[in-house]
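> forwarded from #structure-qc
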């Protein structure tokens, strides 16, 4: 991956930005319902229609908004077939069903040049397009020849391959003169008004229900609906490379670090790894709500283990130039394996994008947490259309549409056990807003739910530790181990305890902690290292006893 990649020339930018005078129309109210969606499947793949019908039923998409097209069954489609069998037919179908209306509109030119007219979408009843399992993923290079291509961009960008998603995202502009070579500037990059993300302004919010199997693809909407109903809970993990500001790739790290702080402000417990290497398989990745990291070509670390503790609704993203080179494999690249392990939504690149053209993950997380739908947040985080990003997941997915207080009241009313996570988030939000730790310590001590929750008991232990009460912290971590923690939470607790017990000079307790860990987790990938730690402690303890005075 090129660290930042070549930039657009002023000529190219002006060629597109001039349409902003036309496209920034009075916004409509941004909604998120099935009537705003068209669902697209490959009629040559029976499972594709099954996924489409499942999604349509789950989101109440009107039957007349489900379209089948006869496409290649491969992940890659030629430019000619994309144009003739998907892009143009879809635009025609939208117009024929009166979901779109094309009309003439006046476009102001830059400077003192006279305005001219272009044909574009002037009425739209939809904002989203969902591509279902079996619809091709990427458009093959075709060496499209355009007379001005060599004059308006650097040679590295003079390419016409793209993701199908990103090429369809500018479908409302299909009747305008939009170059196929190179990226198309996204006028709504980092847009803070989600109502502007509409075909009336030249952008269709495209996402796909896809993955290694049709069952995985179908389940994406089910998990999204569960998280919308009950909340997106768990922990947030960021795997940075600890790059410094003078590094050409620093902007990638900066996005991740900013994303971590955004998640902390949203009330998540956040872990940030700053080792240059990616997370090892031994890393206790537990109860994952958010994951973002870089930079391995193939899935690695905890994500290669038999199971990953993704919570319902989890977003997972690994920044790599070819993270979505294929998404139909559970073991190759990143997007497919993350979905196979249980992630609900992700993004990735099908061909080399250059770093500046990858999703701005910090803005995505900010927008997503502010109540944008997944589709809105994903496309507002893209600096370009007609390029390399694929967006995988239900575009209507909106886990943060309820305030923390509203969601907490709902969980309490329905006696939902997930309320333990809501209590934790409320504590974290209080910390963000300046509450004193002793007050929150007292709150958790008095809260009946704490006594039965590994999540809340671990949180209380963390407060004790921060307040300089190591004995109370150790006792709470030990209590959390008895409250049915998740397998990876148990690993984290055991490692914390070993460190804190040794710091307090409780070597015998630390050794017993490691013995219990080895009995609990016989398949732990770092088992040999733990055995060596235990052996060293036993030898040290035996030597101490031999030299002790009678």
């Amino acid at each position: 991956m090129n660290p930042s990649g070549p930039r657009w020339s002023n000529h190219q930018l002006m060629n597109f930005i001039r349409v902003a005078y036309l496209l920034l129309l009075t916004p409509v109210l941004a909604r998120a319902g099935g009537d705003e969606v068209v669902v697209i499947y490959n009629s040559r793949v029976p499972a594709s229609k099954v996924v489409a019908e499942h999604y349509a039923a789950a989101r109440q998409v009107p039957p007349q908004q489900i379209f089948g097209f006869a496409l290649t069954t491969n992940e890659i489609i030629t430019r000619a077939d994309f144009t003739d069998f998907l892009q143009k037919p879809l635009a025609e179908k939208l117009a024929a069903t009166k979901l779109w209306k094309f009309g003439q509109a006046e476009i102001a030119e830059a400077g003192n040049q006279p305005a001219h007219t272009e044909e574009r979408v002037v009425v739209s009843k939809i904002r989203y397009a969902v591509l279902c399992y079996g619809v091709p993923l990427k458009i093959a290079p075709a060496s499209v020849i355009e007379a001005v291509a060599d004059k308006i961009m650097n040679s590295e960008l003079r390419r016409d391959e793209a993701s199908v998603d990103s090429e369809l995202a500018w479908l409302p502009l299909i009747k305008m003169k939009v170059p196929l070579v190179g990226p198309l500037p996204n006028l709504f990059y980092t847009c803070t008004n989600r109502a502007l993300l509409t075909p009336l302004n030249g952008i269709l919010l495209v996402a796909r229900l896809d993955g290694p199997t049709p069952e995985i693809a179908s389940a994406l909407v089910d998990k999204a609906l569960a998280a919308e109903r009950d909340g997106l809970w768990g922990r947030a993990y960021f795997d940075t490379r600890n790059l410094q500001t003078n590094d050409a790739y620093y902007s990638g790290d900066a996005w991740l670090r900013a994303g971590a702080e955004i998640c902390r402000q949203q009330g998540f417990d956040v872990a940030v790894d700053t080792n240059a290497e990616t997370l090892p398989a031994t890393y206790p990745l537990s109860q994952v709500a958010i994951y973002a990291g870089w930079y391995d070509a193939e899935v690695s670390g905890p994500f290669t283990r038999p199971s990953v503790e993704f919570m319902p609704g989890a977003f997972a993203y690994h920044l790599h130039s070819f993270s979505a080179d294929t998404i139909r494999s559970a073991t190759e690249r990143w997007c497919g394996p993350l979905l196979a392990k249980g992630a609900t939504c992700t993004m990735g690149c099908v061909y080399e994008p250059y770093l500046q053209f990858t999703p701005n993950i910090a803005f995505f997380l900010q927008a997503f947490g502010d109540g944008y739908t997944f589709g809105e947040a994903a496309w507002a985080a893209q600096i370009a259309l007609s390029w390399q990003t694929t967006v995988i997941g239900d575009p209507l997915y909106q886990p943060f549409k309820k305030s923390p207080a509203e969601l907490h009241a709902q969980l309490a009313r329905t006696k939902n056990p997930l309320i333990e996570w809501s209590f934790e988030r409320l504590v974290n939000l209080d910390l963000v807003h300046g509450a004193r730790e002793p007050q929150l310590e007292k709150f958790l001590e008095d809260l009946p739910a704490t006594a039965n929750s590994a999540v809340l008991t671990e949180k209380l232990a963390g407060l004790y530790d921060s307040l300089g009460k190591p004995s109370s912290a150790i006792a709470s971590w030990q209590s959390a181990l008895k409250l049915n923690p998740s397998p990876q939470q148990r690993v984290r607790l055991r490692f914390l305890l070993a460190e804190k017990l040794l710091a307090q000079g409780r070597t015998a307790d630390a050794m017993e902690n490691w013995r219990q860990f080895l009995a609990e987790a016989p398949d732990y990938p770092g088992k040999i290292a733990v055995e060596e730690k235990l052996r060293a402690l036993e030898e040290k303890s035996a030597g101490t006893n031999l030299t002790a005075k009678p």
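QC bot note: The first helix runs from residue 10 to 17. Confidence is low (pLDDT under 50) at residues 6-30, 546-550.
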